[in-house]
């Protein structure tokens, strides 16, 4: 069963796509420059940024369509939650030795993604409540 997305939910999906796209471009294009500043491996930055592009395309497709199944909307929230968990997991694992700026970068982007996931959850509740 598909639901018509509320204008709020569509807007949050577009914002997520814009933020994720900008971060992906920054990470892919700037990996050689960011790596020494952040103390994170260049390949990690590059591939993490590249992984955002299909997600951005998915977000734009869902938002432009204006309707989606509950499962698709839950999947988007889950993908964002996994990104947050992976970000904090990376820092806790000891697998990398980021600089202070690197810690700030990883934490800031994880918190931004968590905020977007929370807003998407609000949008999901509004969308399904209106159905």
How does this structure look, described?
Helices cover about 85% and strands about 5% of the residues. With about 130 residues, it is mainly α. It has one domain. The protein has a two-stranded antiparallel sheet. α1 (about 5-40) packs antiparallel against α4 (about 100-130). The longest helix has about 30 residues, at about 5-40.
Helix percent reads over 70%
Number of helices: 4
Strand content: under 5%
* Backbone CA Rg: 16 Å
Compute the number of structural domains: 1
Q: Class by helix and strand content?
A: mainly alpha
Q: Strand order, main sheet: write it out.
A: 1-2
- Shape annotation: elongated
Mean pLDDT: 94
Q: Which stretches are poorly predicted, pLDDT < 50 over at least 5 residues?
A: none
Head-to-tail CA distance between termini: 10 Å
Series of secondary-structure elements, N-terminal to C-terminal: EHHEHH
Largest sheet: 2 strands, antiparallel
The count of strands amounts to: 2
Task: Considering the chains and any ligands shown, give keywords for the structure.
85% helix; mainly alpha; 2 strands; 131 residues; 5% strand; 4 helices; two-stranded antiparallel sheet
Brief account:
The chain has 131 residues and is mainly α.
Q: How would the blueprint of this fold be written?
A:
Elements: E1 2-4, H1 7-38, H2 42-65, E2 67-69, H3 70-93, H4 100-130
Antiparallel strand pairs: 1-2
Helix pairs in contact: 1-2, 1-4, 3-4
């Amino acid at each position: 069963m598909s639901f018509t997305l509320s204008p709020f939910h569509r807007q949050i999906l577009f914002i997520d796509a814009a933020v994720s796209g900008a971060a992906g471009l920054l990470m892919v294009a700037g990996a050689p420059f960011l790596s020494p500043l952040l103390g994170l491996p260049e390949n990690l930055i590059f591939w993490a940024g590249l992984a955002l592009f299909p997600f951005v395309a998915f977000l734009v497709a869902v938002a432009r369509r204006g309707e989606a199944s509950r499962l698709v909307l839950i999947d988007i929230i889950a993908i964002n939650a996994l990104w947050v968990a992976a970000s904090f997991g990376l820092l806790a694992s000891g697998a990398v030795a980021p600089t202070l700026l690197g810690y700030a970068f990883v934490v800031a982007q994880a918190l931004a993604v968590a905020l977007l996931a929370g807003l998407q959850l609000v949008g999901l509740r509004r969308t399904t409540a209106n159905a």
